[in-house]
Every structure is written in structure tokens, then in C-alpha cells.
Amino acid sequence: MPSARGKRRTGAPTHGRTGKGGRADTRTHGRTAQKRVGPVIARLKKRFPEAGCSLQHADPLELLVATILSAQCTDARVNVVTQTLFRKYRTAGDYAAADPAVFEDEIRSTGFFRNKTKSVLGMAAALLARFGGRVPDTMEDLVTLPGVGRKTANVVLGNAFGKDEGVVVDTHVARITQLLAFTTQSDPEKIEQDLMALVPRPEWTLFPHLLIHHGRAVCMARRPKCGECPLADLCPSAAS
After folding, report:
1. 118 in active site
2. Number of independent structural domains in the chain
3. CB atoms within 10 A of CB 20
4. Same domain, 150 and 202
5. Which of 160, 192, 206, 213 shows a CA-CA span of 20 to 30 A to 150?
6. Residues 124-138 pLDDT 10s
7. What is the pTM of this model?
8. Is 88 labeled as catalytic in the residue annotation?
9. Residue 121: pLDDT over 70
């Protein structure tokens, strides 16, 4: 999944309607955001019924590896790489015993392959040493693994274990929730806290998938299709 890291303009970005100083009209932020979030989720579910985790996986370990590889890389590219990778490496022990140089070549096309190799092999060794080779199913344990932060842990908990412990914030989620005035923050962890207070907990895992689909198909960063957007009347940043 794309990372939410990197430079970002302070405050909510705008597509059209603006207030003083050229900023998006955020008058709907706060109290009325509570009223809008339900319809936003309902409309996105109707528009993108197929929304879900796009990283192909058969178990928590595969999803954990795929999520680590997805940093600064498209899910489509990761799926191409893991199609072969998952046939060779089936357990934490397989990854822990891997030759780093060989593994680097196997994941090279995902980018940052040296750091990712260190993370995946280190994560696998930690699973063997502390968790019997199994991926833990709590946030507290997952974030102790090499290469695993809160975002990665949220992906695994929500999509592999069915546990809504947080909201994944990537570039699409950060950008679109700012446009919707669901947050005025730019830091991913602060955005997540705002969304956890706003979005009903049973929707925490699905909500980011809906926004990612919306961001790819309709609300593109450079050329948003506000005229085709199912959320236009709910979005304070929609072009008039």
C-alpha cells in the first residue's frame, strides 16, 4: 500500500470551493462530520462493492510480508513478486533461513529491497524467537516486530484476523479525509485518531479500502472528477 509519508501541504487540500485565504471550506468539520460520515460510507460501499485488501495472501504471514513489501510500491507489483515468493517461502522459518542476497534479488522490483529484506528476515526471526513462528494477533505484539509499525499492524489485524484495532492511513486516506474535512491533521497517526473518533468501529478496516478505491477511480490528486463524484454534495472541497 502507498505510504502516507512525505511532504504534504498543511491543512486540507482543495479541489474547488474555498473560503478565506484559499483554504477548503471546513465549516462542516466537527459536529456535522458526524452526520456526513455515515452517508459517505454508505455511498462508497454502493459505488465500490468490491473494495477490500488488494494484497493477495492466504494467511497472516503472507499478508504481513506483502504489507512490508508494499511500502513505496504498488500493490499490483507486490502481487507479481509474491506470486513466486509465497511458493518458495511458506513459514517464518523459511524466511529466517533465507540468504539475504538471494532474497534481495527476489524482491528487488518492489524498491528499497535491502531495507525490506532486513525487515522481512528480521521479522521472521523474531516470530521464531518470541511467538513460536506464528504472527501475533495483537497490536502490542505486532509493533515489536522489525519493520512493523502501526499502519502495517492495522492492515494485518483488520484483514487477516478480522480485528478492528485502528484505521490504516495511506496517501489516499490522508488526502481524501482532509478534503472531506474529517480531519485537519497531516500526521498519519493524528489523522488515524481523528478517524477512529469519527468512523464507527465496525467500519475501521473497510473504510480505508473504500477511500483507496475512490482515490484511484474518482478523487485523483491531480484531476479529481468532482462532476462524477458520489460524495460531491457531502464534500466541502468539491468543485462547484
Report:
1. no
2. 2
3. 6
4. no
5. 213
6. 999 999 999 999 999
7. 0.85
8. no
9. yes
